[in-house]
Structure formats: structure tokens, C-alpha cells
Amino acid sequence: MKTTLNAGATDLLIGRRRWLALSAGAGLFCRWPSPAAATSVPRAKSVILVYLNGGASQLETFDPKPDAPLEVRGEFGSIATAVGGVRLCEHLPRLARLTDRCTIVRSMSHDDLDHGSATYLALTGRYHPRKSSNPLPGPEDVPSLGAALKRVLDRRSAPDTAVTINGPALVPEIQGPGQDSGVLGREYDPFLVGDLTGGPATWPSFGLPEGLDLKRLRSRRHMLALVDSVRSERSWREMAALGERAFNLFEDPEGREAFDLAAEPEPMLERYGRHRAGLACLLARRLVEAGVPFITLIWNHSARGQDRLPDDADAQGWDTHNDLFDVMRRHLLPRFDQTFSALLEDLEERGLLHQTLVICTGEFGRAPRVALEAKFAGASPGRKHWANVYSLLAAGAGVARGAVLGASDKFAAYPTSERYGPWDVNATIAAALGLDPNLVYHDRLARPFPLTVGRPMSGLFG
């Protein structure tokens, strides 16, 4: 019997045809995982999902093919790692030394080929009704996993249940769908933190204005609650819920401190890097320390910002149609190698990695053939979108150390073993947080939504 959470109905109306399409996109008619599947996943106190916006190439990261022809393997070489027989791209030397703490999955696969809908797939675990397209976010979207977790988890002791850092993900200049609460309403949106590189002025601040203390703020809150109680509009209820979340942070000194990057010593800031990804990773570690269950870290806010800002390292995205080797060599890979390695090392040094599940993935991979595309900027070749196979890296919280799960063929084009999809990643995260992946929650019209539609990836764990 499926676990069920009930909620009241509201005035939100969706037409029958639209609801059927939404249901199909949500996976309501897909297979259900066995409840027993969750028992093979160790518990984690927190999960960090590192999202490589734009689709990082498997061949230039976690699945190089040194014996393939040049037009397949590309310009980069590969290097040995801490695990015998496992090789990574030559531009990931620090991460290569940490492979004995990780599992690499080389058989991720699905069939959505555009950034918008694939972002939706990656962050909700469901196909968008408009597969392989770039739809705008909408109020009828399936909630992101973070929003769904806010719906079903009660973690009042933490600053928030779900936080998104360095977001939202742009594809490449408009917000991709699947990052917010969709049909659940704004009160379930993950807490969003944007660009942190502007110093304290851009860091989340919960200080009170001069002359306003908590006693006066509580009084104002009480009066506002009286006003809100006589309003029935959905927007008012959502704003009231958002106000409640903000007030809770004002009253929680530990929650406020979690966002204060000024508390970090200079060497730690330098270790992670004072760029967008570096500060985002550092904040993620602080939120783990504060007990936040689910953290989505958007590694690069734009899937392909290099077209507009070719020399701005923060603008570079993993959507490397052209100039792949130049962008990766100069910007993407050195920064990823330094900062992601710093995150894993720092978590382990602080005794947090064993209780924190870290998953690094993108929306898909890149084509197993290097080519110049005339319709994209850039003078040197790159790789097209490719969803048939791509890679994922996981660490912490019982993940097997020094392992490879799944395999691709000799060109990194197709899986040669069991395939895994974003739906399985979401099921794994849910199980790691102690939830039944079969759990069903309801929206405001009492319509059922399964928390996940995949199976936990039990092979990840030792």
C-alpha cells in the first residue's frame, strides 16, 4: 500500500486534456518501484545535487575513450586515477586522486535532447509533456524534487528543507522549467540563493533594520496574520507562507549563521575559489553543517554564456557545441577540478561525507563525434547534445569507494549495461533521506503525485 499525504483543495483548475498530458509527463502511468528497493540505500542526513548546466561531455570528464579514433576521443588525453583501470580526463588531476572515494556511473541514459525539457527531466525526474523543447516554467509543472521534499519532509530544525544555490539555471538566458514548486504553489519553492560573488552585499542577510527588534517584529507578524486570515486568494496564502519562512530564519540564529560566508577564513575561501561555483560549493558545505536535507547546486547559471561573454569564466557553460576544447581547457575543467575536489575533501575532513550524499550530473552528455556546427558561435569544433549515454559521479553516505557502475561502448555512445535515468537518481535521493520512493503526495485539488517514478540505484552503495 502506498504512503499517502492529504491536502485541501483550492480554486486551481486544469482542463482534463491538460491534466492527462501532465499526468503522463509526470510519470503517473509509469512503472512503480518496489517498496523493498529503498532498503538497500543507506541513510544520509543531507544530499547535495551538483548540476552541470548545459550537459557536460562524458568523454572530456568521467568516461574518456583513449583508444577511440581522434574524431571520437577528441583533443584531450586521459590520466590514471587512484583506482586501477579507471581513467579520467587529463584536466581533472585533483579529482583523479579522489576516485577512491567515489563511484562513477557510466550508463546514464534517456531520450530528451534539448536543454529546457531535459533540465525539467533532471530536476523533477519526469519527462516534460513537450519533450526535446525549451518550454517556459509554468504553474502546471510537476514540482522539482526539492519542492516535493518540502511538501513531504518536516525539517523545522534546519534553515530550510530545500535550498538552491547559484540559481536559477538559465538555458541559456531564460530560466529552465522544473526548478520550482509548479502545481504545489510558491510556498513550496526551494529557498533560492543567486550570485554570491558580490561579497556580503549579495549574501543572504537576515539582519533587522535599525530600530526593529524581534519583539516588534513578532507584533507585526501577528497583525499581518490577522489580515491574511480573512483573505482566501491563493496568492495571499502563498505570500503568507513565504513570510512565515522568512520570519523563522530571523528567529533562528544558527540558520542565519549558515548563510554567513564572512565567517569562513581566507584560506578556505581561496581553497574553494572566489567565483560563483566556488562560493556556491562553500555555502553548500555550510548548509550541510546546518542540517539542510536537500541542496541543489547549479554549477554554472547559464548553459552557454560564452557566446555573449567569452572571456568571463563565470559565464561559461557546459553546452559546448563549438570551441569545446578551448572553453574546457581554459575555464570549465580547471575550475571544476579545484572546487569540486575541495568540496569532497572538506566534507570528509570535517567528518560530514559519511552522512552526506553528493551527486554530480548534468541533463545529458555530448555526441561521440567532434564537429564544427555552423549555426553556433565559435571557430573550433565541439560536440552536439547526446542523451543516449552520459556520466554521473557520486560520493559519501555509503556510496561504494573506488567503483564504476555501468559501462558505455567503445565510443561512449550507448550503454552496454543496465541503464539509469534521472528518475532513478531522484528515487535514490528520496530513499537516502529516509523516504519511501513510492510515497504519494497530493496537490491542492487532491490529485496524486508519486514522489519519484524510478528505482533507487542500489548498485551505488558498497
Keywords:
single chain; 462 residues; alpha/beta; two-stranded antiparallel sheet; 12 helices; globular
Task: Write a structural description.
The protein is an alpha/beta fold and 462 residues long. It is 29% helix and 13% strand. Strand 13 and strand 14 form a beta hairpin. Helix 6 packs antiparallel against helix 7, helix 9 crosses helix 10 and helix 10 runs parallel beside helix 11. The longest helix has 26 residues. The protein is globular, with a radius of gyration of 22 Å.
Task: Describe the structure in brief.
This protein has 462 residues and is an alpha/beta fold. It has helices spanning 16-26, 70-73, 93-96, 115-124, 145-152, 214-228, 234-251, 253-258, 266-272, 276-289, 324-349, 422-432; strands at 46-52, 78-80, 87-89, 102-108, 162-165, 191-193, 294-298, 356-362, 365-366, 385-386, 390-395, 403-405, 440-442, 448-450.
Low-confidence stretches: 1-38
SS field, number of helical segments: 12
**Mean of pLDDT:** 87
Total strands: 14
Described by the principal axes of the CA atoms, the overall outline is globular
User: How far is the first residue's CA from the last residue's CA?
Assistant: 29 Å
**What level of helicity do the residues show?**
25-40%
How many whole angstroms does the radius of gyration measure?
22 Å
Order of helices and strands: HEHEEHEHHEEHHHHHEHEEEEEHEE
Largest sheet: 8 strands, mixed
